[in-house]
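Sample intake — Acetolactate synthase small subunit
Collected from: Clostridium aromativorans
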Amino acid sequence: MKRYVLSVLVENHSGVLSKIAGLFSRRGYNIHSLTVGVTGDPKISRMTIVSLGNDHIFEQISKQLNKLIEVIKVIDLTDTQAVYRELCLVKVSVDSNSKLIVMEIVNAFRSNVVDMDEKSLTIETTGDEKKISAFIDIMKSYGIKEIVRTGLTAIYRGSRLENDVKVI
C-alpha cells in the first residue's frame, strides 16, 4: 500500500465535503487523513487528502474527483518536493518530578506548552508525520491523557505555484 497525497481546490460552500467523502465511501476507498481550509480566495477551499492504496485506486480516485462539478483542480503531491506538516496537541500527566523533564523534551522537539496545571501539560507540536509520531512515543512513558492530530497538510517547496504543477 502506498500513501497518496492530493491537494484539491474546491468551491467553498456547504455540501462539498460531504460529496467528496461520499465519493470515497461509495467506492470503498479509505481517507487516511483530511484537512480543509479556505484559501486566499474566500470562494475556494483547499482539501489535502491522504489515502492509501495502489496506482489503480489512485487513478480511479483522481478521475472521480475531477468529475465533480465543485472540484476546481486536483493536484498530486505524492512523491513531489513538498512541505508536509501536521499539528498535534498532546495532554500529558505530570507531577513535580516529571514536569521539568517533560518541558526539556518539549524544547528539544521545538514544541510549545499551551496549557498547564498541577497534574498535566498540554503540548502543541508541529512537523512531519515521523516527528509527531516520535514525540508521541516519548510522551507515552509519562502518561498521555489525550491526543488530537490535525492530519497532513502540504504545499510545494520553493517558488513553484500551483499553476506550475501537474494537474491530474
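Post-analysis note: The chain has a mean pLDDT of 91.
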